[in-house]
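Study this fold:
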Amino acid sequence: MGKIWNGLQLALREKQGLMIPVAIWGMATLICAVAGPFGTLEALGLWARTAYWAVVIGVSVGFSTLLSRMTFGTALRYLISWSLFVVGLGSLVWGINAVVFPGWQDAVSLFQLLVYVAVVSVLVHGVFFLIDLARPVPVETAGMEIDPQTRFLRRLPLAERGPLVRIEAQDHYLKVVTDRGSTLILLRLSEAVEELANVAGLQVHRSHWVALEAVTAHRREKGRDLLVLSDGAEVPVSRSNRAAAQEAGLF
């Protein structure tokens, strides 16, 4: 029952985290469907116009939300990722326009649209940057050491920052789970473990790190050790890490 309840809580937190981009998508689609910017008012009927803007804005918000939840490590990776976003979104919109509207099949139209998408992306990021600057920041005592968990959590979106539960390696990314939700960041597990060396946690598998306080139970299944976490997940313990897990009191 506890596992089901924890799973429901995690699903609810993730659902709440999606409400903002969905609300933005819905409001922007409604405004554009009614206003009909960029000639869509004259070229398309209400329902066709609504469908057009729902697709364009939906893809834009979806890509933006995905990228905003990732940590890129370096400015170069960040620039490359958002450049791919601009090219991908611009090309998609150009392809839709080439089918829907006459005169959108040439390369000049594609270039103009890419420039427009790039400018809008810069403006939107500028607005959010100014909002972050205006947000009050807690005053830190000069010379005060910031604990490793707080420093690590700065990689996560504000909505997901909370006590760590577990970290799971997924290809080139890490799924970071806190008591407030989960997100993906671009980082290697070995780097995360090194950063969290002084945090009460343990790498129990080549793909898993767990916070000691988040472990709620231990069980064995077919000769394998499994740890049950507060988010309902079951994390395997490798043989090479079994002794360390026992020493930490996890079973």
